[in-house]
Amino acid sequence: MASSRNLWKLTVSYDGGDFHGWQVQPGLRTVQGLLADAIRKVTGEEVLPQGSGRTDAGVHAIGQVVSVKLEAGIPPQNLLRAVNRALPTSVRVMQAELAPEGFHARHSARGKTYEYRIFVRRDAGMREERICSPLMARYVWDCRWPLDMALMQEAAAAVVGEMDFSSFAANDPDASVRQGGAPPSMVRTIFSSEWRREDNLLIYRVRGNGFLHHMVRNLVGTFVEVGCGRMSVPQVGAILTAKDRSTAGPTAPARGLFLVEVEY
User: Fold this and answer.
1) Nearest C-alpha neighbor of 91 from the set 160, 39, 53
2) Fewer CB near the last or first residue (10 Å), C or N of the chain?
3) How many of the other CB atoms lie within 10 Å of CB of 195?
4) pTM for the whole thing?
5) Mean of the pLDDT values across residues 140-165?
């Protein structure tokens, strides 16, 4: 007998500072858990919405994509309004649409774009420091070192292409389980990687076919080391070749990272 369940694609935005990440965890406030609760209140159905990826605690999303199957026959605009009424203001479903059969938020994804934002507290040669507004502080890395954006741009260009990003990946104990016990591939393709400046913000934008655990934050941490002179641009290539996390820079704070878009 054919299932009467409809497959939905939801585009979700959230302020990650209020949550212990995307994935449901016992006793902790997570985006996936709150979204499941909101859907249950609206439809009466117990479901676990599947996201395009698991953002960590403190990481934000502008365009997280979620897939979920529901039996309730409800028009998209009605579902959108009802679910948002059941959610806190720090989470919003921006779009709700029926998805084609076989669609999966994670497995069907072909590309993702992230942005990382750094507040420039001071430029080279500047004595007095700028003050980061408390209204901005939870969405940026308030970096105390003067940074050379030209060097950071060179470093960012060095990671474009298909390569093994083991040196920029955190250990993920769940990865082998998701891969059925096989070692996960550390190879990813980066389509674009660049910095720009907007007023007192340095913004890193990276687009690729996928990202490893903490990969973007580890890239940013390394680029900042280059920008403040503690690493050189050629070292980035050597770090990639090493396939060793200890050779790269520190992990940038979660609060500056945004999942911007998922492509299908």
Assistant:
1) 39
2) N
3) 24
4) 0.93
5) 97
